[in-house]
Each structure stands twice: as structure tokens, then as C-alpha cells.
Design goal:
The complex is a heterodimer of chains A (246) and B (300). Chain A is an alpha+beta fold and 246 residues long. Chain A has helices spanning 2-7, 11-34, 45-57, 96-101, 127-135, 182-194, 222-239, and strands spanning 64-74, 77-87, 109-116, 138-145, 152-161, 164-174, 177-179, 202-209. Chain A is built from seven helices and eight strands, in the order αααββαβαββββαβα. In chain A, strands 1, 2, 3, 4, 5, 6, 7 and 8 form an eight-stranded mixed sheet that branches. The radius of gyration of chain A is 25 Å and the shape is elongated. In chain B, a hairpin with a 2-residue loop joins strand 2 (181-184) and strand 3 (187-190). Chain B has a three-stranded antiparallel sheet, with helices on one face. In chain B, helix 5 runs antiparallel to helix 6 and helix 11 (221-251) packs antiparallel against helix 12. The longest helix of chain B has 31 residues, at 221-251. Classes of the chains: A alpha+beta (246), B mainly alpha (300). Chains A and B meet through helix 1, helix 2, helix 5 and helix 6 of A and helix 1, helix 5 and helix 6 of B.
Chain lengths: 246, 300
């Protein structure tokens, strides 16, 4: 060992070798031994299997009944659940006063689109553009709004075609929150991964037709849309994200 | 030279350099294998954005090897200066990143470690000498940057869709453009971020960077602008043409041609042709508008 010690006599070189040797022993060798490297993350499979059920089962929303539920491919993106909703208030119109205050208007329709994360490496990819391309509407009056007291930022805009006007609300939701920007999910997931878990996500899009003629006003539809959005967020959090640690 | 004679032979048995190389190989061999595997076998899209590393990393290694004599001749700093402390800080950061255990941090630990080694072993002069290969390694390191950029290149996507639509209209085809979508004969083509040539843009800029070194043009700021602007412009034009062709193939029911250019080897050939053209253009600059009378050969 004498010649070796002589050759690497400078302390600065010893520091480097000691540091790298320590990282080898702590980081690389256990990975060589187990064959499991940091870039092969295979976690969260069970949770995703449950999330994927959303594509086929959809979501039961109180106050709304599901008229039709189908799995759809939207602009090449498979796995969307497209759920046609109708306010169930129309069936029990005996107390219209309370319904007007709390529940959706009788006869109101809405479409709920849900895209759950399909696999561990799938990230949100601004799916809103796929929906724009699929619906072929003109999007304007975009704003970002929170839903009630929930810690999330959804995008709210008017999507209109010559056939009619829709109030549209979109966001990604995950156990720790929700936002329309994929980057917000990315940083939430990054924080989660640093402590050893993940933030699975679901893309949510709510389309509420306002009126059938001309360019409608979406502000009048906002309370309705926000209530539905809030309900969807809470059900997802309760039924699908409750087991997630955060 | 102020070094002990035993260190002047860089690759003697049990030399510092050999031990260093061995440890770095143990640490990063599997990671580099994973990178190359993803680039060659077309792994996930975000990883693909960095496939220029296929040639960039060997080129960086070649440059570092070529200037090994200059590295050896750099004086080893005796005292702990600010630069060396920064190097030590970077080494520490690389250790944290490596042991952090999430793919992004492990990836990033490689350029941080290499920069830290340069600063710690040779001070600021060491970093300056290896600046170019370090840049090549940094820009070939897969990071989430393209993923985070994707939502913001919507104007580029719309621009490319509009230009492709314009070209097709003038060829007498019935096309409608809406945002990033081209509609033709009941079929839709989406100009997605990777289709808008974010990947091709990255690759061309990277090749532009390599050519800056190859022609020894990097000391000139105007050459940086000329090379990188040419690379950016060429990749945008190439993408307009590519999306025009894709829409034409898809809209006229030539599905096999569409798939060949979209995900088959046609796309690779197209990119290779574009990069070849970029090399020809930049070679033209240096031939007809040389920066100075000196030979452009970096080996001289």
C-alpha cells in the first residue's frame, strides 16, 4: 500500500476518492446487489389499478344521475370516461325552493370527462388541448378560479360553436391538491417522491351547456359549475385518494 | 510543472486518475447504460428529447481526452480558494443528488459531479478548460425541462399548424386549421409539442453547439448567434414541411406513409437529412465567410 499512498498523497485527491468511495458503498453497491435502480420506480401499482376503474365505472355524483357512460378516445388519448349527467332534481320536483338553493336546476345537463393516470410513468400532458381539438369549439374568456374552500386552481372558460355555448371547468386533481397546470402536479409529485411516495392524478373536465343560441354568458352558469366541480373533487378525494399518504 | 513525477503519467497502475475513472464508472455505468438504452430503443418521450446525447457524450469524452495534456499541465491549486470551495460544494451536492434516489436527481448528479471535480482539482482554470465538454454533458442529461416547457410552446405549435395549412391550401387541398389541429377530409392531425419539433429544436441547437466547437467559432458571440439561430430556424422550417407531409399523408388516406414518417424510420431519416443540411449550411458559413484567416481545423 505504500506506493499507492505516495501516489495519492495530496489531501485534495484523497477527499475526492473517499467521497466517491462512500457514495459507491452507500448508493451504488446496494443497487448493484439488489438490481433495483432509482430510475426503475415500480411503486403505486395497486393505487393506479383502482384509479383506472374510473375509466369504466365513472363517478356517482349526488344530485345528478348518469344518463350515459362510455369510454372514449379523445384526440388519440385512450381511457377517458365520458359521463352524461342530468340533474336528478327533475324527478323530485316537489320541493323546488330547496333545490333552487342547493342542488342543480331541474333539467340541467352536464358532461363529466375523467381521465385517470394509466401507469406510473404517465404524466399530465395538457389534455385540455386534446379536448379543444375533439370538441372543435372556440375557447375564450379564460380565467383561473378556486372551487369553494378547496385548495385548487381550475381553468374556467367559454367553449362555443355555432351550435351553442358551454361553460367549461378543467383541472388535474391529486391527493394533495389540484391545478390546471401540469407543472403544479409535477412539483407536488416531486415533493412526494422525495419522501418515497407518489401523487397519482386524474384529469377532470366538466362541460355545462348554457344556452343553445348565440354566444352565451358563462358567468350565470358559474355557481352551478363550481358546485359540481367541488362535488367531483370531494368524491374523488374521498373514494380514490383517501388511502394515499401526504 | 509543479507536480510530483509519479503523477505525470496519467494512467499508470493505481494512479489517481485510474481510481477516479473506476469509481465514476461504478457509479454511472448503469445510469449511462439506462440513458443509451432509452435513446436507442425509443423509451418514454421525455427521455427521447435528449437522444442527441448519443453522439454528444462520446464527443464530450473525445474533447476531454484530446486536451488531457493541457489538463495535466494545469497547476494544482495549493490553497483553498473560492473556486475550490465552490467545487467542494458541487461535489457535496452531487452526492446528495445521487443518494437522493429519484431519477431526476440521479441524472443531474453527473454534470454536477464532473463540474465539481474540475473546480476542486484544478480550480477555475480547470472548469474553463472543460467548459465545452461539461456543457455537452449538461445538455445531454435527461431533465424534466422539456416536460415543463411543453405547455408554453403552444404559439409555436399553432404557427407550424398555420404554415402547414397554408401550404396545403396552396396545393389545392381542402384543409381547415384550428389552433394546433389540421382537419382534412374528416381526419385530424394534431401538432403535438414533440411533433412541433421541440425535440428536433433541441437536437439542432445541440448540433449547433458541437459545430461551434468543431469550427473553433465559440470565442465569437456573433458566431454563437449565427449558429444557434440557423439551427433554430432550420428546425422550425423542417417541421413545417414535416407536418405538411404528415397532414397530406393522413388526409389522403396514405396511412402507411404517415406511419413511416411519424413513428417509423422515415422520421429518423428526415431528422438526419435536416441535421446534415445544418452541417452543410454552417460549413458554408465558415468556407465563404470565415471569421478569421486561421485554419478552421480544431486539431491544428
Amino acid at each position: 500500500m505504500v506506493p499507492l499512498a505516495q501516489r495519492i498523497s495530496q489531501p485534495s485527491k484523497l477527499v475526492v476518492l473517499a467521497l466517491l468511495l462512500a457514495v459507491c458503498l452507500l448508493g451504488a453497491l446496494p443497487a448493484y446487489w439488489s438490481g433495483h435502480w432509482p430510475w426503475q420506480d415500480a411503486a403505486q401499482a395497486a393505487q393506479l389499478a383502482k384509479l383506472r376503474e374510473l375509466s369504466s365505472k365513472g363517478l356517482a355524483v349526488p344530485g345528478w344521475q348518469t344518463l350515459n357512460l362510455q369510454q372514449a378516445e379523445i384526440s388519440g388519448q385512450k381511457g377517458w370516461a365520458v359521463q352524461a349527467l342530468s340533474a336528478s332534481g327533475s324527478a323530485s320536483a316537489s320541493s323546488p325552493a330547496t333545490l333552487a338553493l342547493d342542488g342543480p336546476k331541474a333539467g340541467q345537463t352536464a358532461t363529466l370527462l375523467l381521465l385517470p393516470q394509466r401507469s406510473a410513468d404517465k404524466k399530465p400532458q395538457v389534455e385540455w388541448l386534446n379536448i379543444d381539438g375533439n370538441q372543435r369549439w372556440t375557447a375564450d374568456q379564460l380565467s383561473h378560479r378556486s372551487l369553494g374552500t378547496l385548495a385548487l386552481q381550475a381553468r374556467f372558460f367559454r367553449g362555443w360553436t355555432p351550435q351553442g355555448t358551454n361553460a367549461v371547468l378543467q383541472w388535474y386533481t391529486w391527493p394533495g391538491g389540484g391545478d390546471a397546470q401540469p407543472s403544479a402536479w409535477f412539483f407536488a409529485d416531486l415533493r412526494a417522491r422525495l419522501s418515497g411516495h407518489r401523487q397519482p392524478w386524474v384529469a377532470v373536465c366538466i362541460v355545462v351547456p348554457t344556452d343553445s343560441l348565440g354566444l352565451g354568458d358563462i358567468e350565470t352558469a358559474w355557481p352551478e359549475v363550481a358546485r359540481l366541480g367541488e362535488a367531483v373533487q370531494q368524491i374523488l378525494a374521498r373514494q380514490y385518494f383517501a388511502s394515499a399518504v401526504h | 510543472m509543479s507536480q510530483p513525477t509519479s503523477l505525470s503519467k496519467p494512467f499508470g497502475p493505481f494512479s489517481f486518475d485510474l481510481l477516479l475513472l473506476g469509481l465514476v464508472t461504478i457509479l454511472y455505468g448503469p445510469l449511462l447504460f439506462h440513458w443509451y438504452d432509452g435513446w436507442l430503443n425509443k423509451g418514454d418521450l421525455e427521455h427521447q428529447y435528449f437522444s442527441h446525447g448519443l453522439i454528444g457524450l462520446p464527443f464530450a469524452a473525445y474533447i476531454a481526452w484530446e486536451q488531457r495534456q493541457r489538463w495535466i499541465q494545469l497547476p494544482e491549486p495549493e490553497r483553498l480558494g473560492g473556486m475550490r470551495l465552490l467545487g467542494l460544494g458541487l461535489l457535496g451536492l452531487a452526492v446528495v443528488f445521487y443518494l437522493g434516489g429519484i431519477p431526476e436527481s440521479v441524472n443531474l448528479s453527473l454534470p454536477v459531479l464532473l463540474a465539481g471535480l474540475c473546480l476542486w482539482l484544478r480550480g477555475g482554470a480547470g472548469l474553463k478548460l472543460q467548459a465545452f465538454p461539461l456543457l455537452l454533458v449538461l445538455f445531454a442529461t435527461p431533465t424534466p425541462v422539456p416536460y415543463l416547457m411543453e405547455p408554453y410552446i403552444l404559439p409555436l405549435q399553432s404557427f407550424i399548424a398555420s404554415c402547414a395549412g397554408y401550404l396545403l391550401l396552396h396545393l389545392g387541398l381542402d384543409v381547415t386549421v384550428s389552433g394546433i389541429y389540421l382537419y382534412m377530409a374528416g381526419r385530424t392531425v394534431e401538432v403535438a409539442p414533440h411533433c412541433a419539433g421541440l425535440k428536433m429544436l433541441f437536437t439542432s441547437l445541440y448540433i449547433g453547439l458541437m459545430l461551434l466547437y468543431w469550427y473553433q467559432a465559440w470565442p465569437s458571440p456573433s458566431r454563437w448567434f449565427l449558429y444557434l439561430a440557423s439551427a433554430g430556424l432550420l428546425s422550425v422550417v423542417a417541421n413545417i414541411l414535416r407536418n405538411t407531409l404528415l397532414t397530406f399523408f393522413h388526409g389522403t388516406g396514405r396511412e402507411s406513409a404517415f406511419r413511416w414518417l411519424h413513428e417509423g424510420w422515415g422520421g429518423d431519416v428526415y431528422s438526419a437529412l435536416m441535421l446534415g443540411l445544418l452541417i452543410l449550411i454552417i460549413n458554408g458559413y465558415e468556407r465563404w465567410f470565415p471569421l478569421r484567416s486561421a485554419s478552421p481545423n480544431p486539431q491544428s
